[in-house]
Known about the structure:
The chain is mainly α. Helices cover 73% and strands 0% of the residues. The longest helix has 33 residues, at 60-92.
Amino acid sequence: MRRDTIHAYLLLLPAIILLVAFTHWPAIATLIDSLYATPHGARPAPFVGIDNYRDLLNDPVFWQALRNNAWYAVATIPVSIVLALLMALAVNEALPGRAVLRMAYFLPTMLPMIAVANIWLFFYTPDYGLFDRIIAWFGGGRHNWLGDASTALPAMIAVAVWKEAGFFMIFYLAALQTMPTDLREAAALEGSSRWNYFRRVTVPLLMPTTLFVLVNAVINAFRVIDHIVVMTRGGPDNATTLLLYYVYEAGFRFWDTAAAATATVVLLTIMALAAVFQFGVLGRRVHYR
């Protein structure tokens, strides 16, 4: 028995080394860096304790980035999941051209985010963009979608939903195709409506997939930076600045590594609390059998 245990740990050793080297140790190093000031040249960084956290809490840009990210997550997560489920239900039926429809839904996922951002830049271009052209057909005027603080963040949310919904759809479609067909037949014999079958049978059986999709959606909502850099660079007036972009600017634009490490620790804390809620609360309501 002991020999089998040693053999199992030896098989896991490469994965453990990679996990510690690229996940756990960087997180610990970031926590340590957040307790020191930013080094300058050959001068070592002095220990400042929680002063960096005080400065972060007194930074209005950080609070705006936190609010923006909260609204971004609240909008993108449920919309992406619901849209993915609806698309999966649609392409799971015996429809003509079903393969083409599946490919069309999944195509945005295959595109790099940088390419997606440039495509949507054309859509949002004032006067010449797709949206302004459509509005002009109905007699509307031009609108600077990315230059207006009231529409810039919703514009970023639309890009993220368009990109992610097709990816989540694949998991729902796979789950739907593994469901026994005799359940639907039995429900039909009992006179159950399609809505009642969906609510009482399909949704509970999809809960493991929903939890998996939810975890990925939450991670994606807080690690987004690609299309922010390409499309708005956090503007206008920090209207689209999210937490990870705040970290990027602090560390690579202003070279304030202490502030970047401090904001990263806050971001990791938020993600850890979200993970505890997802697996500790929602995970108990998931039935795998």
